[in-house]
C-alpha cells in the first residue's frame, strides 16, 4: 500500500488561498498520508494507533491539533551523508537592500529518491553543534538536538520521484542567524516509537552551504501596544543586539515636528526559563533580544511616525523601517472608534511548508483580510492562542513576522491562552501541557501589555468610549483570588456616562458556548467558568464578554444566569439587562463543532474562520459585526442604542440596595 504523499503544490496553494472553506482533513488521514511506503500490516497497526491518538486528542480539549514540527523525531535522526545526494540554496546573501523577508530556491537530489524524503530548514546553519540536553526519555545521546524551523516533502517538487531531482522555494524571515537546508530520507518518524522504532528513522543524507541575511541582527517586526494610559504607545521589536553591543531606541514625532528619541529596554530569556519539553530541548531556539520603548504624552488621535533603531559604539545607526500610527483617543472622547476582536489565529507558512497537519488553515486569510482593511479599524485584541508554537520557539518569530503589517501600525493587545501558558505544576489553573513547556515566557516577553505583573496576564485598556477588562483564563479567576479582585476593580472603576461600552475578554470560554466538546462534558463553559463572574458582569453591566479557545463563532442573547433577558436579536435599546456573550475563536486554527441541539440563548453560530468588529459611533450607538476571514464580509451583526440612564436602570441583581428614607 503506497499512499500518495502528503500534499501537492496545487493543494498547498489552495490551502493558502483566499476563500478557504471550513472543511478540513481528518488527522488520521493526514498522519497516514505522511508515512509514505510501508507494508500493509504495519499500516493497519498505524491506522489503529492513529485513531487512538486522534480520539485521545479529541477528548482532551475543545480543539487540538498537531504542531507540524512535533511530527519530526529529530532526536532519532541518524547521519548518513551520501555522495550522490546534494542540496544547494540560492541566493547566498539575503536582504541586501534591507529586506527582512526573502524567497530562496533550494535544489536537491539523490539517486535513491523516495516519497519519504524531506527538506528541513535549519537556523542557525550549524544545527549540529552544542550540547544535547539529552533528557532521560531519549535513548542515548541524540545526534541532532534542534528541530528545523520548517520542512517540506521533497516530492512537493513535481517529478522528484521520476528524476530524483527537485526544486522548492522557501520564504525566509530574518531570524538573527544563518540558514542551512538538509535533505532527509526515511520519513519523519513521529507516529509511534513502540510500533515503528526499527522500521523508519530519519536519515540526514545531504546539507547545503549556509546562507544568511546581510545583517542578521537587524531590528525587525515592530509590535505596537497601548501602554498604561491612553496617551502612551509602546513599541516592541526583536533584534540580535544586546544592550552591550548597541543602544536600542525609537525615533518618533507628530507630523511636522522635530523627532524625539526614546531609549528602549531590553529583555531576553534562556533555555533554563522554559518549563519542559520540547521548549527546553529540541524546540529551543535563542530568542535574541526583545526591546520595548514607551512613547508618552501623545496628542489624542494625532498621526505619529516612528522608526526603531540601534546606535552602535561608533555612533552609526542600524535602522528599522519607518511606520506611522494614530494616537489613541482620551477616555470618554466622542469620536469614531473601531475595534477588532478574535482569538486562536495561529500562523501558517506562505511557501506551503509545515502544512501537513492543517494546523491553522485560516490563519493567513484572517491576517490578510485585516491587512487589507488597515484603514478601517483602530485597535486589535487577539485574545489568546497566538502562534501555537507549543514549545518550538522559532515559531514565535514566524508569527511576529506574519502579523507585523498589522502590529506595526495598530496597537495589538493580546491575552494569554492555553497554548501560551499551560504546563503542569507551574501555578496555572489548568495542569495540562498545551504550551509545550513555554509556560508563558515567550508570550510575556515577545509582546507588551499593560499588566502590573506580566506573569499575571490581566490588565485594563481605556480606549475612548470603551473600557476593556482583559482576564487570564489560565490563572484562577474565582472569588477570593487576586484576579477576581482585579476584574471587579476594572469593571467597577469606569465612569459609564463617558465610557459606556464595557467589554470583558478572556481566552477560554468563561461565559457560554454550545461547542460539542463542552456539551460532552455536560456544560456550556469551562469548569467553574462563570459561576463567580456572572454576578460581576451583571452588577457592573458588562455589555459584551468575548472568548476564544473554541474555534468557531457564536453569540448569545443579552443574558444572565442562563436566561435570555430579551427576545430581540439585532437591535438592542433601552434598559440594559444582560451581557451578550461572544465566542470569536475562529481566527485561523482548525474549526470546532457545535452540539446538534441549539440552546435557546444561542442567537447565531458560524463554523468558519472570522473575527468581530465593534464600531462605537458615539456614547449611544454601537455596531457589532462578525466577518468571515475568507471575504471580509459581514455575516452577523447587531446594534445597541442606549443612553446613560439605561445603564443606571436597575434590573435583576444589578443594583445596590435602596432605602425607604426620603
Ligand atoms: Fe485555546
From TrEMBL:
Pfam families reported in the protein's UniProt record: fn3_PAP, Metallophos, Metallophos_C, Pur_ac_phosph_N
Purple acid phosphatase C-terminal domain boundaries: 578-637
Catalytic activity: a phosphate monoester + H2O = an alcohol + phosphate
Gene Ontology cellular component annotations, sorted alphabetically: extracellular region
Record's keyword terms, sorted: Glycoprotein, Hydrolase, Secreted, Signal
Purple acid phosphatase Fn3-like domain: residues covered: 87-215
Protein name: Purple acid phosphatase
Amino acid at each position: 500500500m503506497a499512499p500518495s504523499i502528503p500534499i501537492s503544490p496545487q493543494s498547498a496553494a489552495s490551502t493558502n488561498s483566499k476563500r478557504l472553506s471550513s472543511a478540513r482533513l481528518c488527522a488520521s488521514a493526514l498522519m497516514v498520508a505522511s508515512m509514505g511506503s510501508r507494508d500493509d500490516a504495519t499500516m493497519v497497526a498505524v491506522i489503529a494507533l492513529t485513531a487512538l491518538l486522534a480520539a485521545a486528542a479529541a477528548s482532551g480539549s475543545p480543539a487540538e491539533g498537531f504542531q507540524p514540527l512535533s511530527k519530526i523525531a529529530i532526536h532519532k535522526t541518524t547521519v548518513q551523508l551520501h555522495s550522490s545526494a546534494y542540496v544547494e540554496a540560492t541566493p547566498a546573501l539575503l536582504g541586501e537592500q534591507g529586506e527582512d523577508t526573502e524567497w530562496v530556491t533550494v535544489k536537491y537530489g539523490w539517486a535513491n529518491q523516495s516519497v519519504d524524503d524531506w527538506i528541513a530548514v535549519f537556523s542557525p546553519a550549524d544545527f549540529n553543534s552544542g550540547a544535547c540536553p539529552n533528557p532521560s526519555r531519549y535513548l542515548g545521546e541524540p545526534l541532532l538536538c534542534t528541530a528545523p524551523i520548517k520542512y517540506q516533502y521533497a516530492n512537493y517538487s513535481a517529478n522528484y520521484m521520476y528524476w530524483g531531482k527537485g526544486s522548492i522555494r522557501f520564504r525566509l524571515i530574518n531570524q538573527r542567524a544563518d540558514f542551512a537546508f538538509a535533505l532527509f530520507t526515511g520519513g519523519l518518524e513521529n507516529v509511534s516509537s513502540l510500533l515503528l522504532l526499527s522500521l523508519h528513522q530519519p536519515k540526514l543524507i545531504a546539507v547545503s552551504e549556509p546562507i544568511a541575511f546581510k545583517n542578521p541582527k537587524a531590528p525587525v517586526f515592530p509590535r505596537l501596544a497601548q501602554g498604561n494610559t491612553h496617551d502612551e504607545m509602546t513599541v516592541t521589536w526583536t533584534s540580535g543586539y544586546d544592550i552591550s553591543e548597541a543602544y536600542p531606541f525609537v525615533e518618533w514625532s507628530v507630523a511636522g515636528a522635530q523627532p524625539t528619541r526614546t531609549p528602549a529596554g531590553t529583555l531576553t530569556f534562556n533555555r533554563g526559563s522554559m518549563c519542559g519539553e520540547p521548549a527546553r530541548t529540541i524546540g529551543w531556539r535563542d530568542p535574541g533580544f526583545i526591546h520595548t520603548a514607551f512613547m508618552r504624552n501623545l496628542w489624542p488621535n494625532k498621526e505619529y511616525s516612528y522608526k526603531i533603531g540601534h546606535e552602535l559604539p561608533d555612533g552609526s545607526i542600524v535602522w528599522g523601517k519607518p511606520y506611522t500610527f494614530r494616537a489613541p483617543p482620551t477616555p470618554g472622547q466622542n469620536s469614531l472608534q473601531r475595534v477588532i476582536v478574535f482569538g486562536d489565529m495561529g500562523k501558517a507558512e506562505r511557501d506551503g511548508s509545515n502544512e501537513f497537519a492543517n494546523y491553522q488553515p485560516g490563519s493567513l486569510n484572517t491576517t490578510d483580510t485585516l491587512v487589507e482593511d488597515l484603514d478601517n479599524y483602530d485597535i486589535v485584541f487577539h485574545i489568546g492562542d497566538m502562534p501555537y508554537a507549543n514549545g518550538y520557539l522559532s515559531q514565535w518569530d514566524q508569527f511576529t513576522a506574519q502579523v507585523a503589517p498589522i502590529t506595526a501600525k495598530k496597537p495589538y493587545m493580546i491575552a494569554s491562552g492555553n497554548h501560551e501558558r499551560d504546563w503542569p505544576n507551574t501555578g496555572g489553573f489548568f495542569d495540562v501541557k498545551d504550551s509545550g513547556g513555554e509556560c508563558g515566557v515567550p508570550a510575556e516577553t515577545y509582546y507588551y501589555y499593560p499588566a502590573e505583573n506580566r506573569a499575571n496576564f490581566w490588565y485594563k485598556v481605556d480606549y475612548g468610549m470603551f473600557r476593556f477588562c482583559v482576564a487570564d483564563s489560565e490563572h484562577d479567576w474565582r472569588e477570593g483570588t487576586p484576579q477576581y479582585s482585579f476584574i471587579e476593580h476594572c469593571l467597577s472603576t469606569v465612569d459609564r456616562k463617558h465610557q459606556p461600552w464595557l467589554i470583558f475578554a478572556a481566552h477560554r470560554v468563561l461565559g457560554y458556548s454550545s461547542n460539542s466538546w463542552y456539551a460532552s462534558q455536560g456544560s456550556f463553559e469551562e469548569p467553574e467558568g462563570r459561576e463567580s463572574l456572572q454576578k460581576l458582569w451583571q452588577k457592573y453591566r458588562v455589555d459584551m464578554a468575548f472568548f476564544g479557545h473554541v474555534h468557531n463563532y457564536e453569540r448569545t442573547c443579552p443574558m444572565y444566569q442562563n436566561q435570555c433577558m430579551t427576545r430581540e436579536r439585532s437591535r438592542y435599546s433601552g434598559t440594559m439587562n444582560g451581557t451578550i456573550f461572544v465566542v470569536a475563536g475562529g481566527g485561523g486554527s482548525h474549526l470546532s463543532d457545535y452540539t446538534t441541539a441549539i440552546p435557546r440563548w444561542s442567537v447565531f453560530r458560524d463554523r468558519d474562520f472570522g473575527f468581530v468588529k465593534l464600531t462605537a459611533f458615539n456614547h449611544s450607538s454601537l455596531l457589532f459585526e462578525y466577518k468571515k476571514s475568507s471575504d471580509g464580509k459581514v455575516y452577523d451583526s447587531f446594534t445597541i442604542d442606549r443612553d446613560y440612564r439605561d445603564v443606571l436602570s436597575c434590573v435583576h441583581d444589578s443594583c445596590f440596595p435602596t432605602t425607604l428614607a426620603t
